[in-house]
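Input record, target 12 of the design panel.
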């Protein structure tokens, strides 16, 4: 078991990504019950993973991650995630001594750019680079599972006959934030 300790931020200046190569990620959520572990399937480049994450306490949570065949991940995404899927491109940005993972979201969340940094412990000093914006570590609206739910809701609306004028769901952040 690994312990994941991370902090998340909006990205204020996306020029930090100019000239960098990113890696495409497609991830979906198989299961998530309030107060229990989430079960995520992810294809990252040419590799695939099944990940279980406990609820967050402070900045940390337990994480169990297992490599799986890409064909299995594709089948799970297609048939078992109920459209709770997020697509993004991930860039790695060094800011000594840390590496920030910067995710540029696609689809319904185009324009949203989030940086996260994993830390060895919750009290690790962190000098923030100028290209970061507001911290969103404890803002559940920006969690990947919440974004996946919003994608499923919007795709469901697109597939269903319209019954009223739509807009962002209550409590969902307006995007784009940083582009």
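The sequence produced for target 12 reads:
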């Amino acid at each position: 078991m690994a312990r994941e300790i991370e902090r998340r931020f909006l990205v204020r200046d996306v020029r930090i990504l100019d000239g960098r190569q990113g890696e495409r990620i497609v991830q979906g959520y198989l299961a998530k019950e309030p107060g229990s572990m989430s079960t995520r399937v992810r294809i990252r480049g040419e590799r695939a993973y099944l990940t279980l994450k406990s609820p967050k306490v402070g900045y940390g949570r337990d994480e169990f991650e297992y490599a799986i065949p890409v064909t299995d991940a594709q089948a799970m995404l297609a048939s078992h995630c109920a459209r709770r899927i997020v697509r993004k491109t991930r860039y790695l940005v060094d800011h000594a001594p840390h590496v920030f993972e910067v995710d540029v979201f696609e689809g319904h969340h185009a324009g949203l750019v989030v940086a996260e940094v994993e830390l060895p412990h919750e009290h690790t000093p962190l000098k923030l680079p100028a290209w970061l914006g507001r911290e969103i570590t404890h803002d559940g609206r920006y969690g990947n599972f919440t974004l996946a739910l919003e994608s499923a809701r919007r795709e469901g609306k697109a597939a269903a006959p319209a019954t009223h004028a739509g807009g962002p769901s209550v409590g969902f952040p307006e995007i784009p934030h940083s582009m």
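Residues 144-159 form the longest helix (16 residues).
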